[in-house]
Design brief:
The structure holds three protein chains of three kinds.
Chain A lengths: L1 H38 L2 E6 L2 E7 L3 H8 L2 H31 L8 H9 L6 H11 L5 H8 L13 H30 L2 H9 L4 H12 L1 H16 L3 H6 L13 H10 L3 H47 L1
Antiparallel strand pairs in A: 1-2
Chain B lengths: L1 H27 L13 E6 L3 H9 L3 E4 L5 E4 L4 E6 L6 H11 L10 E7 L3 H5 L9 H4 L3 H4 L5 H6 L10 E2 L5 E6 H8 L4 H7 L3 H13 L8 H9 L13 E3 L2 H16 L12 H6 L8 E5 H11 L7 E4 L10 E5 L6 H12 L2 H11 L6 H9 L14 H10 L9 H16 L5 H15 L5 E3 L3
Parallel strand pairs in B: 1-4, 1-5, 8-12
Antiparallel strand pairs in B: 2-3, 3-4, 5-11, 6-11, 7-9, 7-10
Chain C lengths: L3 H33 L3 H5 L10 H10 L5 H32 L5 H11 L8 H10 L7 H4 L6 H14 L2 H9 L4 H12 L1 H17 L2 H6 L8 H9 L8 H32 L5
The chains are: A mainly alpha, B alpha/beta, C mainly alpha.
Chain lengths: 317, 461, 281
Amino acid sequence: MKKKRKSISYAKWGYIFILPFFICFFIFSLIPLVDTIRYSFYEYYRSGIKEIGPTFIGLENYISLLDSDMLKYAGNTLILWVIGFIPQIVIALLLANWFTDIRLKIHGKQFFKVVIYLPNLIMASAFAMLFFAMFSTNGPINSILMSLGWTSEPIDFLGSVLGTRSLVGLMNFLMWFGNTTIMLMAAIMGISQDIFEACELDGCTSVKRFFYITLPLIRPILAYTLITSIIGGLQMFDVPQILTNGQGNPDRTSMTLIMFLNSHLKSRNYGMAGALSVYLFIVSAILCFFVYRMTNGTDDNGAKAAKRRAKAEKRGR
Amino acid sequence: MKKRVVAVLLAAVTAAGLLAGCGGNGGSGEGGGSETTEEGKVINIYSWNDEFRTRLEAVYPEVESTSDDGTVTTLKDGTEIHWIINPNQDGVYQQKLDEALLAQADAAPDDKVDIFLSETDYVFKYTDADADVAMPLEDLGIDPETDLADQYEFTKTTASDQNGVQRGSTWQCCPGLLVYRRDIAKDVFGTDDPTAVGEKVKDWDTLKTTAGELKAKGYYTFASYADTFRLYGNSIDEPWVATGDTVIKVNQKIMDWINDSKEWLDEGYFDKTVKGQWNDDWNKAMSSSSKVFAFLLPAWGIDFTLNPNWDGGDGAWAVTNPPQEYNWGGSYIHACTGTDNPEHVKDIILSLTADKDNLMKISKDYLDFTNTVSGMQEAAQSDEFASDFLGGQNPYEYFAPVAENIEIAPLSSYDQGCVELIQNAFSDYFQGKVDYDRAKSNFETAIKERYPDITEIQWPE
Amino acid sequence: MKSSKPKHVQSILAHVVLIVLSFMCLFFFYILIVNATRSHADLQKGFSAIPGNYFLENLKNVANDGSFPMFRGIINSLIVSTCSAALCTYFSSLTAYGLYAYDFKVKKVAFTFIMAILVMPTQVTAMGFLRLITNMGMYDSLLPLIIPSIASPAVFYFMYSYLQSSLPLSLVEAARIDGSGEFMTFNRIVLPIMKPAIAVQAIFSFVGSWNNYFVPALVIQSKDKMTVPILIATLRGADYMNFDMGKIYMMITVAIVPIIIVYLLLSKYIIAGVTLGGVKE
């Protein structure tokens, strides 16, 4: 009898297990989302303390957003994200590989791991404030640079496009590279030691081992890192907001999409904020679709390429 | 069980309130008990910091005690004042206040907003006659003509709606002065005497010549272009946005500020490394290592900003007349439409903004320049008001005449955004990051984001 | 033997890189801590590498300031972050397991759906969220900061990936044959296997909710329910009543110290967990 029940009713458990997640999601995310989308078709804002609307205006909010500088802000967001992400993933891969390499004796491993993760603990807003104070024209960094004689005049970091963007990138890098390292380490350590041992026996160099074994095997986690980082990048807000006081100075070159959304929310322009949210939603969906395609696609391609390479190598011998 | 306790407590509070009410009536011998509408037991006050609470505790005679965490003040008649404090930054205060005001009609009597505060930068948003969220003082039984006769005229204008009906009142008044470093004055002019220095800075043209002298000795006149903005901004002759209109008219005075600031910065009269106010660079410009000659500050600015940022001894700074009269700051008290405590509210407003003794006490204890013409004239003559920080100089001597000459610029409910964003947009232009037209269009973009109903921006010429 | 020399070079390189990175990370904290020990007047004089003796004074200023109940805020933040981390990791694992181990009709749809909402920026729903919370009577309470963490798509995806790489379904089958109930199997067998992943994600979500400012600022109204970031934000404003930089640095310090302690405690567990956890294939 027991046997019979099992074979029939496992599906039920699947539903039960995923139920809390979905109930919670529908209440706390979906209802608000529908609300947001609904208002995107309305003219609805506050003027002083008087409420204007809601009046149905169709797609007008969407059209006027396209006329605005929205695309420029999207570009800014992308640039800021890339500046931070590329060094982050490279360094994280390198460190994760070193940390998990048993033959590489790293002294104070525990200490380094703890230290590199540290910046991720500090509040982004507090971190940005700290940077703002340190890199201000009369701040500690400039006084250190000047006393070292590296520069005779204080550098106006936050006054230049390059300076501001680099600082945002640097902060994002510092805050996230430790996090990514730990994540990748967990993944690499999840790989069965047998594989590494087998590789060792075959006389693999550590470079080869990294590219042919580690990298392909941690691809799911890499994809995860990439996706979360893209979403994080799209949502970039705290750091540039506080560093530039919400203005994206100079000349709005570090204004991100969420800062743009925030300025609409701040002015209580529900209609416009709603429409912008919908755009953001669509963009993030498209981005993710590409990443899925990329990671799933390379699964086959990667395998094929590996085979081809193996063949070529054989032939070469 | 819990419910019963609450009920008993409520009954007790009600009884206490009734008794106190009776006592009050008997004492004053008034026979008007018949027309009293029931006063609520809770007065809700919205503000952005505890400044108003400390002033109220200091001078309002009805205060019994305040809870340790500062959220509830109990009055002698048992009425409780509930303080709802939200920070001003990022518009949080206005956001929360707006929510409460929109819910005002449906709120239970004891949840209604009874008093709220506003700052000069956005006072007009709340005194707007169409919005009707701040009660006309006359409806409370306060006659501005007689009860508030000793107040500075411009504070009354500021707190009035577009029809001239006064809808708020303030205890403070914020005339600004020019505060300068004595050592720099001695070095450049050979004297640090306030009258002599005052002569050097009496108007913009003279000040510009003086700025050249300072520059020759390696000093900056002011820290940044943001420092001079209020002087220009206060003297506009038309509001940013006319009532009922959706067009921003940038005033010629603002254009003057833009042109002068660019010129001054290029000439090296400002410290190029200081961008705006309220940041670390600005704070450092007030320290002894800085080369900045002067700041334009009101009374609170000297005591709460300059003094803590100065790392030397007392007596290093002095005040003199500014090149142009101006006002900076001021917190207005409003009675909220729909309040269930009109009598208390009236009493509080009168006690804090119209009682000369109370105001003088605030001036003495908290260094506020208070809203009493006769009182401030007395203070200007009195040695009691001399400041140690200013080396024994009595700043009221200079504050009082400025206050009397302030003419407040015509207000609109868009002022806060306009003032903030025009400085931001043109900051890039001053620094040479963008050209003039680009700065203009950046301002237009930003202001339309802030105020969705703005349709057009008109520039002079 | 052959590879010992390049290993040596690589080891030096690794140490150099690690030291440089560590310096960059610690340098900013160092400045923060040093500045927290100096008075505002000292800070005005410019940066100095030597700590001042104002530490206790600044701490006292922070602790005794009734308008910024910092320690109450830390307790609130601890409650919210701990509950969120627990709910989030448990239910994400449960959901991931549900979708990984069972076959049912909507499985594919459900999975795709979660992956689709993974990309939804939280700010998008903020306004609607606030309205909903108000209607539900949960405005100005800590609950709306905790409960929604049950549905965390990103954590779900991590758990799912982890299950894929380290939970063979044969193990579940074996448990069934042993007569273990489904919940029992999850709690007794699957959860321990997932320990490393749970530890990592618990830290991430704890930190995430500890540092979250956006939602709490919308939801929390009264002083005694405020979390740390709201208090920090209150202090950092351009308000002439509170701009003592020494105090501000001290508040930031106080705000990050508890989380560093929690991390140090958990980090040992993580590293041990990663090496021990999982079932070898």
